[in-house]
Design a protein that fits this description.
By secondary structure, this protein is of the alpha/beta class. The protein has two domains: 2-122 and 275-305, Quinone Oxidoreductase, Chain A, domain 1 (Alpha-Beta Complex); 125-251, Alpha-Beta Complex (Quinone Oxidoreductase, Chain A, domain 1). It contains nine helices and 15 strands. Strands 3, 4, 5, 6, 7, 14 and 15 form a seven-stranded mixed beta sheet that branches.
Length: 315
């Protein structure tokens, strides 16, 4: 099969479009013919070797953990040709390939109203937002949350999920993205380029930090006593700093979860969630897709198209 692999850690130039062995499914796996793969910051971080000290990869390695495609053969409760999507296990070869083997419990039927190219942009970002908001922060109706980089993949899902839960949502984004974020459900949108987001904000229940750096440091004072900053961006937040402000902090962890993806697909099909696509590339253009991620300020998700897909609803 054709795949994109890297044989050594490095910049986007290490990505090679080449022949690779077909994946051999383990017990409990399903084999998926990949129609599209989502491209995420984690793909770039693993390619660079940011985590090689504690999470080394078997080189040459196929990256990509967001996948949408079709089941190859009946297995794991799925039937051949059914449209599915999944977040794959980060320790195994990924979705930048014509085929991928994924644990059946990590797979869900794809949203019927989305083309598979768009469904591929959902799993990792939506599961990350869900985990941060509800598993970690336990956000509830009537509470308030500040979502940094609201126009990014995680940010857009966080805005929609928090709004659906009945929370008050404040988001930071460039002015060009304000209309989009209001449409997604943000009550207040702050232009981080021309305004101090912290001015006038106080007593918030939660900050979702997808940026890190100075943005994180300026976010501590906007929380109420006992509030929580949940980080997506590395490095992990400093618990001692949080304690000095009388607040809590945690690093988001996200795991594959087919059951939760089934609920996310239901919300998409009911019109309660949507995904925005920033740009699409072919599999052979994976290096360009990584460079787009590294430029920053993507408006939604970046997608690799791998096989011809149908935009028709599933039967």
């Amino acid at each position: 099969m054709k795949a994109v692999r890297f044989h050594a850690y490095g910049d986007a130039g290490v990505l090679r479009h080449e022949d690779a062995p077909l994946p051999v499914p383990n017990d409990g796996d399903v084999l998926i013919k990949v129609h599209a793969a989502g491209v995420n910051p984690a793909d770039v971080q693993f390619r660079r070797g940011d985590y090689q000290a504690f999470a080394p990869l078997p080189l040459p390695f196929i990256p990509g953990w967001d996948v949408a495609g079709a089941i190859v053969a009946n297995a794991g409760g799925f039937k051949a040709d059914e449209r599915v999507f999944a977040m794959a296990d980060m320790g195994r070869h990924g979705a930048y390939a014509e085929y991928i083997a994924v644990r059946a419990t990590d797979v869900a039927h794809a949203p019927a109203r989305l083309p598979l190219e768009h469904a591929a942009g959902v799993p990792l970002a939506a599961l990350t937002a869900w985990s941060a908001l509800f598993d970690i922060a336990q956000l509830q109706a009537g509470q308030s949350v500040l979502v940094h980089a609201g126009a990014g993949g995680v940010g857009q899902f966080a805005i929609q999920l928090a709004r659906r839960a009945g929370a008050r949502v404040i988001a930071t984004a460039s002015a060009a993205n304000h209309e989009l974020l209001r449409r997604l459900g943000a009550d207040v949108v702050i232009d981080y380029r021309n305004a101090d987001f912290a001015a006038g904000l106080a007593n918030l229940d939660m900050v979702l930090d997808t940026v890190g750096g100075q943005t994180r440091e300026r976010s501590w004072p906007v929380l109420r006593s006992g509030g929580i900053l949940v980080a997506v961006a590395m490095p992990p937040p400093d618990a001692a700093v949080a304690q000095s402000y009388g607040v809590r902090t945690a690093m988001t962890t996200v795991l594959p979860n087919g059951e939760r993806l089934t609920e996310i697909a239901r919300l998409i099909d009911s019109g309660e969630l949507d995904v925005t696509i920033d740009s699409e590339f072919t599999l052979a253009q994976a290096a360009e897709a990584h460079r787009r991620i590294e430029q920053g300020h993507a408006r939604g998700k970046i997608i690799l198209r791998i096989a011809a897909s149908t935009h028709e609803e599933a039967p």
